[in-house]
From TrEMBL:
Family membership: Belongs to the class-I pyridoxal-phosphate-dependent aminotransferase family.
InterPro entries in the record: Aminotransferase_I/II_large, AspAT/PAT-like, NHTrfase_class1_PyrdxlP-BS, PyrdxlP-dep_Trfase, PyrdxlP-dep_Trfase_major, PyrdxlP-dep_Trfase_small
Name under which the protein is recorded: Aminotransferase
One GO MF term attached to the UniProt entry: oxidoreductase activity
Cofactor: pyridoxal 5'-phosphate
Top-level EC class: transferase
Superkingdom per UniProt: Bacteria
Keyword terms: Aminotransferase, Oxidoreductase, Pyridoxal phosphate, Transferase
Organism in which the protein naturally occurs: Brotonthovivens ammoniilytica
Record-listed E.C. numbers: 2.6.1.-
Keyword NADP: no
UniProt KW Ligase keyword: no
Amino acid sequence: MLKLNRKIAQLKPSKSVTLMAKTKAMQQRDKSIINLTGGEPDFATPEKICEEAYLQMKSGFTHYTDGPGIPKLRQALAEKLRTENHAPYQEDQILVTPGAKYAVYLAVQAVLNPGDEAIWLAPGWVSYPSIIEASGGVPVAVHLKWEENYQITFDALEEAYSEKTRLLIINYPNNPTGKVLSPSDREAIAQFMRSHPDVLLLSDEIYEHIIYTGYEAVSMASVPDLFERTIIVNGFSKSFAMTGWRLGYLACSYEIFSVVMKLFQHTISCTSGFLQMAAVTALGCSEDTEKMRREYEKRRNLLYEGIRRLPGADMLKPEGAFYAWVKFDLGMNSEEVCNYLLEEGKIAGVPGIAYGEEEKVCVRFSYAASETELRRMLKNLEALLTKKKR
Ligand SMILES: Cc1ncc(COP(=O)(O)O)c(C=O)c1O
């Protein structure tokens, strides 16, 4: 038998990526399936961004570029982080990566030694625990609760802490719950970080521009005494409908940066120049981002009003991102609910277990889908749930 890397071989496949591919394949055979599994904007990348990439490609900007990112993009990102996020990173503290996912991977690899623990908040993005494991670390989940509105408390963080804790990973606006950091969440995190000076904070802010009326996305890097210990991860996939471009970035202290850079140089070298020039254009596309945000907000309202009145279902009101986090009271666990919805109602969602949800009763539906599809989903769901109640 082949002897392969046990750490990597033992990783579980990403449930959401697998389900997305499986549902797409099913849709080829059955066009009536409503695929709400993907975390992928259904909008086209804004025209201006595509034009810029095309022009740059035509003009020959198609060779290796400065490793950590072209100066124009790093300068623009430093300006954005300073003015929008109140996180005063210099341009040479910013690394442009092929997607935010790889930025998370680089940061976690750079920070953890074998056996070190990293705390992540569940329900949370499927890849955090696997990336921690791939880096030789031990993921420690803090299970936030539906009944407590997924509030973060100092006590819950403290309970997960041990002498081996080196990293706390947070993601707000959150995938899958749609929560943003409330002032009390921020205070709990700050208190925890102040109690443990050798713990670093990784803040994944990839949904920061998809934020609904009445809420704001505040970065923990804006807290002056936490700034040096915070690594921001962000990217272009969600805000600018650029998932396929594979462009993200991280910003961190010089000390962390020098370690991250070594791994980056030996694994990626650089990201493409014409894509980075288009990313500079993207940063100036706030009107397009706002148009998409308004559309997501309309869809959020449609689903929230539609689902909450159905028997056996309850939905958390998303404050940001584009996911409906729905709790089902059908006497089934979330995987059974997903199978039932797919087989009987042609609705495909991702079971809460994929996000480490403890209660196993929630399903995530992405509303990065057309209003027509969402209305069809509501109709099918209503028919199923009312039949079930009878
Ligand atoms: C919380 C979170 N972080 C990171 C990513 C990855 O983004 P990218 O496409 O930039 O790799 C996703 C994508 O689903 C996500 O939901």
